[in-house]
User: What shape does this take?
Amino acid sequence: MSEQQPPPHPPQMPGGPAAYAPPQVRVISAAYRRWARILIGLAIAVAVLMVVALVASFVLLAVADADVDNAAYGYLAIFLWFAIFGAIPFLLGLGIPGVVMTRRVRQQRTT
Assistant: This one.
């Protein structure tokens, strides 16, 4: 064989390309399940704090409305509303991945 010739092609494997193979079952580890529970727990805690802040802001508005000397409580209620609106991205950032992870864990258990 001459050195001028290209090397032979590697042998082809029978069957279709790997892209057409059935998807493999992904094993979900214990750490994945633990993080799913942690994220859901933190999302629940943030949601509870947001509800408590909302109720407290309404109470503060009622106190501020009842007496002119307590008008500063209204500003505190507005501050709580800003805190609630600021916490919404954190709630979504914790809750959505936690729900997706929990859903995957449940699907893994059923299969």
